[in-house]
């Protein structure tokens, strides 16, 4: 690590950092690594390993991907609502659970207005102060959600005039699924977001629709808002499959990612069963779901039952997929399933990774979903017109034909299309701009911090 003071010190705040297995962890990992590779000294503030192994599930293979120059500071995080060990429960929780939950919700938002995560503000900002005392911080980049991550940006800016970046992996006052404003004007959340955005050096969003919504809401800082798409990691993205498939072996369709209750898995299953029953090329095909069923370590019982009901149709849940095996599993597929929740503001990180495969992509989601804007010019994209079984079946049948016959030239166009979404290309302009704002030249490894 370079000597203290020779390069800017960036504190990157991300509750979900390896070994967290949530979808946002890849953005967090890539961003911290990018700053380190660009010459910054990087300290990551995140939750403890036990937080993920105990509550959400963990992918320990991700820890090996963290740049060794990065210092990771793990801040204890308690999650009483998910503590299933009844030996640790209070009498109030055991005998009056409804009253306990109500009281717990009030305690959660005492320090920061976010259920479940609010109590983390105090230990998080205390850890940030200790980091700053030991090695003065020049820039904070806080990645939500949870939005309590932004508390470090607010604290170090208020107390030490440290500039900060807000990286919205999702949104705070916008429901990205239905487009309505979650927290009304004048609410505690709305006032806090307004303050934080007003003081930010930059604000990042994952797609243009979400940025545009915030630009309309906060026009005074519109110029500081940028799109930093999730992109894909070239080292772990699928290798493009450029050859025409010659074998008549059964086709394998695949989905990789977390499946939540908002994902139209039932609609897909109905369309899959219909297509499989009537198309000879699909009669022995399989559809594999890789990832987590729900956001926690225990699979959602409802989603498990749904998949089991379609086992005879070749639909199968395979299980979680460590990042190190992603490329290997992609190589086994003939076509990909992009099954997403509705919402004009919803993209999903997997859409970018999917394009790198040069495989047919079947989009099973609302046509107005923001992923449609990403895939519109992808040569082997097969979207549904709606989520009725007939529409899903037709898209699957068209993708089946493409999986059998798409030429190398078409697949090469798919590969070329995907290159614009390399995560490095998404992050590089913003990291360079922030280096310039700190008067830092990575080539000369010198810096003069410019306060705003």
> What number is the mean pLDDT?
90
State the separation between the terminal residues, measured CA to CA: 27 Å
Helical proportion, percent range: 25-40%
Q: What is the count of β-strands?
A: 13
| Secondary-structure class | alpha/beta
Principal-axis shape: globular
Q: Give me the CATH superfamily of the largest domain.
A: Glycogen Phosphorylase B
Can you characterise this structure?
The chain has 452 residues and is of the alpha/beta class. It has 2 domains: 9-230 and 423-437, Glycogen Phosphorylase B (Rossmann fold, 3-Layer(aba) Sandwich), CATH 3.40.50; 252-421, Glycogen Phosphorylase B (Rossmann fold), CATH 3.40.50. It is 37% helix and 14% strand. The chain has 16 helices and 13 strands. The protein has helices at residues 25-37, 49-56, 91-95, 97-108, 121-134, 150-160, 188-199, 208-217, 265-278, 301-308, 326-330, 350-355, 371-375, 389-405, 408-418, 423-437, and strands spanning 9-13, 41-47, 71-75, 139-144, 164-168, 202-205, 225-227, 252-256, 286-290, 315-319, 335-339, 361-364, 381-383. A 7-stranded parallel β-sheet has the order 3-2-1-4-5-6-7, sandwiched between helices. A 6-stranded parallel β-sheet has the order 10-9-8-11-12-13.
């Amino acid at each position: 690590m370079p000597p203290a003071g020779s390069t800017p010190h960036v504190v990157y705040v991300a509750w979900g950092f390896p070994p967290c297995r949530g979808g946002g962890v890849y953005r967090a990992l890539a961003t911290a690594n990018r700053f380190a590779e660009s010459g910054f000294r990087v300290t990551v503030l995140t939750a403890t390993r036990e937080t993920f192994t105990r509550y959400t599930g963990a992918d320990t293979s991700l820890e090996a991907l963290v740049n060794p120059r990065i210092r990771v500071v793990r801040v204890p995080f308690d999650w009483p609502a998910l503590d299933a060990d009844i030996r640790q429960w209070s009498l109030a929780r055991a005998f009056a659970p409804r009253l306990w939950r109500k009281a717990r919700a009030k305690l959660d938002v005492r320090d920061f207005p976010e259920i479940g995560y609010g109590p983390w503000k105090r230990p998080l900002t205390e850890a940030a102060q200790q980091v700053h005392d030991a090695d003065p911080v020049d820039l904070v980049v806080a990645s939500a959600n949870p939005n309590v991550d932004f508390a470090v940006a607010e604290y170090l800016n208020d107390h030490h005039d440290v500039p900060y970046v807000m990286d919205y992996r999702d949104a705070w006052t916008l429901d990205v699924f239905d487009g309505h404003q979650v927290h009304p004007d004048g609410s505690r959340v709305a006032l806090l977001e307004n303050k934080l955005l007003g003081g930010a050096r930059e604000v990042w969003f994952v797609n243009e629709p979400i940025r545009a919504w915030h630009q309309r809401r906060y026009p005074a800082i519109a110029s500081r808002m940028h799109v930093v798409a999730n992109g894909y990691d070239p080292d772990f993205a699928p290798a493009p499959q450029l050859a025409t498939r010659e074998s008549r072996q059964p086709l394998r369709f695949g989905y990789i990612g977390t499946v939540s209750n908002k994902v139209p898995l039932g609609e897909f299953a109905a369309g899959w069963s219909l297509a499989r029953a009537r198309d000879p090329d699909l009669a022995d095909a399989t559809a594999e779901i890789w990832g987590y069923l729900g956001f926690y370590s225990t699979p959602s019982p409802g989603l498990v039952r749904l998949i089991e009901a379609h086992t005879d149709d070749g639909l199968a849940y395979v299980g979680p997929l460590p990042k190190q095996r992603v490329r290997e599993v992609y190589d086994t597929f003939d076509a990909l399933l992009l099954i997403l929740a509705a919402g004009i503001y919803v993209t999903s990180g997997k859409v970018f990774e999917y394009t790198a495969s040069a495989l047919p992509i079947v989009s099973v989601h609302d046509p107005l979903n923001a992923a449609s804007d990403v895939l519109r010019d992808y040569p082997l994209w097969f979207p549904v017109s709606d989520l009725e079984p007939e529409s899903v079946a037709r898209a699957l049948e068209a993708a089946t034909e493409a999986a059998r016959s798409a030429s190398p030239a078409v697949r090469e166009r798919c590969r070329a299309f995907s290159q614009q979404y390399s995560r490095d290309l998404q992050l590089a302009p913003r990291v360079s701009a922030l280096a310039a704002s700190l008067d830092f030249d990575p080539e000369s490894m010198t810096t003069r911090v410019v306060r705003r």
